Amino acid sequence: GQQAVVTPANEFTMREVNIGLITSWKDGKLMFVKEPFQNVATELERWYNVKIELQGDKLKRLGYTGTIEMETFSEVLELINTTTPIKYKFNKNTRILKIYGIDKPYNKL
User: Fold this and answer.
1) 9-62, pLDDT tens digit by residue?
2) N- to C-terminal Cα distance for the chain?
3) Are the C-beta atoms of 45 and 74 separated by less than 8 Å?
4) Total-model pTM
5) Each residue of 45-55: pLDDT tens digit?
6) CA distances, 63 to each of 4, 33, 59, 68, 108 (Å)
7) Burial level of 14, CB count in 10 A (0-12/13-18/19+)?
8) Exposed, middle or buried by CB within 10 Å (0-12, 13-18, 19+), for 38?
9) 17, 96, 97, 104: which has the highest count of C-beta atoms within 10 A?
């Protein structure tokens, strides 16, 4: 129930974690509980081999709870779009996903 973390100063710290959340990837799932959207984006980048650019600090801090299991990348985008106040644009050639919070103008999407 503990996780060792290396700090930017190359020091180890220990913290209590939910092992089920941390190891869910090995069972083909990504699970999040009140996780900052920035962290969710990082996991999705690794899982789907894409680059995700979040536009705006408010969006990066937005807490996200959910489980992703066996969904395609487009299904995940639609799930996020349904449950989170965002707009997005995906460039298939560069594999870059730009996500905008609803407080940003989208006229350039």
Assistant:
1) 999 999 898 888 888 888 888 998 898 999 999 999 999 999 999 988 888 888
2) 43
3) no
4) 0.74
5) 999 999 999 98
6) 23, 8, 9, 16, 26
7) exposed
8) middle
9) 97
Amino acid, single-letter form, for residue 91? N
List, in sequence order, every residue forming a beta bridge with 66; answer none if it has no partner. Answer: 32
β-sheet bridge partners, residue 32? 66
Confidence label for 105 from pLDDT (cuts 50, 70 and 90): very low
Residue 99, pLDDT above cutoff 50: yes
DSSP sequence for the chain: -EEEEE-TTS-EEEEE--HHHHTGGGGTEEEEEEEEHHHHHHHHHHHHT-EEEEESHHHHH-EEEEEEES--HHHHHHHHHHHSSEEEEEETTTTEEEEEETTS--TT-
